[in-house]
Design goal:
alpha/beta; four-stranded parallel β-sheet; 5 helices; 4 strands
């Protein structure tokens, strides 16, 4: 995962991928970074699983990942389902557990992550990164 970025590049929107599974979150992060090859990657972190390493969601893991990828351009948070959505909504409502310019993005996890990383790597702002990820709902496969 690309959680750090070169200090000579302008700040890029950080991406946090929240899944009930650590393996899924980390694998989607690697896939998105790999498909954005040829560009400097956006800062990306997976926040998957519960605090014990099993299935679930963890507010602490999500908050930690968001702070690791935040560098002044904002943080787009993509989630898989259910309690991941609720956990991020609670963190945003509390107001001090996530970086100030964090946004929950309504997008499919895999396709949205790829679109978000490509947009962020290209220098897009948070609004544009979120829009790119949300547009992934319309990707047709047939």
């Amino acid at each position: 995962m690309s959680e750090q970025q070169d200090k000579s590049t302008p700040p890029r929107v950080g991406i946090v991928l929240v899944s009930h599974s650590k393996e899924v979150a980390d694998s989607v992060a690697r896939l998105a970074i790999g498909l954005a090859a040829g560009r400097d990657s956006a800062p990306v972190a997976g926040a998957g699983g519960g605090p014990d390493g099993g299935l679930g969601t963890s507010a602490e893991l999500i908050s930690s990942a968001a702070h690791r990828v935040e560098n002044g351009a904002g943080v787009a948070v993509l989630v898989d389902l259910g309690s991941a959505v609720l956990t991020v909504k609670v963190l945003l409502a509390e107001g001090d557990d996530l970086p100030e310019n964090s946004r929950l993005v309504d997008a499919p996890l895999v396709e949205g992550a790829i679109a978000a990383v490509v947009a962020s790597a290209g220098g897009a702002d948070l609004e544009t990164v979120a829009a790119a990820a949300e547009e992934a709902y319309h990707f047709r496969k047939l």
